[in-house]
Write a structure and sequence with these properties.
One of its GO terms (cellular component) is endoplasmic reticulum. By secondary structure, the chain is mainly α. It has helices spanning about 1-10, 30-35, 60-70, 85-95, 100-165, and strands at about 45, 55.
């Protein structure tokens, strides 16, 4: 992916409205990565610098370029409210009218909801993994029982009979 990412950075170098960059989360960029909640590498983020979103698309140059051309532009945000439709302007104004403490509490609540969704998903996946393991163990045991019941010998006898019938 690195060569494709480098090519994308080169393509957008000098853009007045889009930044394509990379950050080394193991060195000087560690605090930035921690602040953005980055846990795995490589991670691609996009959007308003104060509220970056996770990129979930393709990782080849074609997919990255298509996404960048369609999405890396000034977007509706508190800094670009003129780009917002009436509903988003109302939402931004509603948040702007809140006290910092109330906004912090609401952010904390929503982040807790996200964390709970992640935790619920992890539990579900662990349950699915256990179900899969149990089913695999049962299947293997059943196949072993079938083989032990003489299946191999049955096949050998059939082959011998077929060979004898040919003579």
């Amino acid at each position: 992916m690195k060569p494709d990412w480098d090519a994308l950075m080169e393509k957008f170098a000098g853009s007045a409205t889009a930044l394509v960059a990379d950050v080394d989360c193991t060195a000087a960029g560690k605090s930035l990565c921690e602040a953005q909640g980055i846990r795995g590498y490589p991670t691609i983020k996009y959007g308003d610098p104060s509220a970056l979103e996770d990129y979930k698309g393709g990782r080849d140059l074609s997919a990255l370029t298509k996404f960048a051309e369609e999405n890396l532009k000034p977007m509706c945000s508190p800094a670009n409210i003129d780009l917002c439709d009436d509903a988003k302007k109302a939402e931004i104004n509603s948040f702007m009218s809140m006290s910092s403490a109330d906004l912090d509490a609401l952010i904390k609540e929503k982040e807790a909801m996200q964390e709970q969704a992640e935790a619920d998903f992890k539990i579900l996946v662990e349950g699915l993994q256990k179900t899969y393991q149990d089913a695999m163990t049962k299947k293997d045991a059943t196949i072993d029982e079938i083989k032990a019941s003489g299946l191999g010998m049955m096949k050998a006898v059939k082959a011998t009979k077929a060979k004898n019938d040919e003579l």
